Amino acid sequence: MPSIPLETRVALQDQMTEYCYLVDNIGELDPLLDYFTEDAVLDFSAIGLPFMNGRADYRKFYSEVFENMSHHTHYLTNFRIDAYDGDSASTRAYVQGMGRANDGNEVLVHVRYTMDFVREGDQWKCRKYNIYPGMPLPASLDEIHGDR
Amino acid sequence: MPSIPLETRVALQDQMTEYCYLVDNIGELDPLLDYFTEDAVLDFSAIGLPFMNGRADYRKFYSEVFENMSHHTHYLTNFRIDAYDGDSASTRAYVQGMGRANDGNEVLVHVRYTMDFVREGDQWKCRKYNIYPGMPLPASLDEIHGDR
Amino acid sequence: MPSIPLETRVALQDQMTEYCYLVDNIGELDPLLDYFTEDAVLDFSAIGLPFMNGRADYRKFYSEVFENMSHHTHYLTNFRIDAYDGDSASTRAYVQGMGRANDGNEVLVHVRYTMDFVREGDQWKCRKYNIYPGMPLPASLDEIHGDR
Q: Among A48, A117, C61, C97, which is least packed by CB within 10 angstroms?
């Protein structure tokens, strides 16, 4: 694990956790969008979901997700720092993500997140976010989020 | 996230985790009761369980829970600090809680905890504890814990 | 909780988390074996799996596990320090462990880990590792890992 000041490490862990709060607080879209840099790349293709290049893409995705879902819960564990150089950092975690769509369809995924952060003032903004499968994915993932 | 000394932040996270150990160690009631101030308010009404005002109430609840349950596991993740002012703090976490009753009935809930802590000597005591639903609740929650 | 420098506490938590990464990264056996001291004792008997005394034993176990499994995910939460004296430490955590065997059989366990670590240079090596049940264990645990 790279050398990193403890305060920074905790701030980065909190920032990954913050993503879960933002995406689980269905309805408030702007704070979730502001989690990312304008040009952030969100690559969910490894789990069969979109590759998104910049705000227009990820705004469309999340606004449709929020319209579609009644419940979200993302448990984040196994946090670690992959890289750190003072103004940027790469982090990783395991996530158990579950959701319930308005039509009652339910989804549970076991995935891994990687995030690249860049320091902007006293904040860490995510500029790259990938999701990888941990366990085989359920069919309901595509049914719920597939057609974005 | 409010500014807070790292030692304090970790102590508060440990204290939330400690609740899981105490409630999962079925049988030893007193250490669990001493987790709370005498006048602590435990409000579980958002998940259909009791509102408890002070030790007599929560002693009754937990002693009946311990009589009834053979297994408990509460996974706590997504810890964060909501407020801190030196002698008091408000914290939050996600909890995946599961239990098995002596009659074999099982329950799994996806919930959120908020806790208000007050410093007593070198310890943090919980004086307010709320549970909110994360995902829709199963019927077995009421069957197992409903009639307290 | 015993007094421990924050850096050390975080390093030990990271080390427990590292076990999950190593055991979930099916295929690379040596980094997993090097997680432990040569004479490490791994006692999984409380969940019906082997008691292993030293590297020959745990090498056999993990190499067979890796041959047999296509997917692994171990979520580690509820970390705490049980003991610390400068050059050794005892830690504890909850783990939700899941796996999928090459034959499609699946297993999900709710368990507790305890680990004893000893400092070797700037690293913490595990010299004792126990698994205890958290919830009743599924039959598929024995089917998948039983005959080591």
A: A48
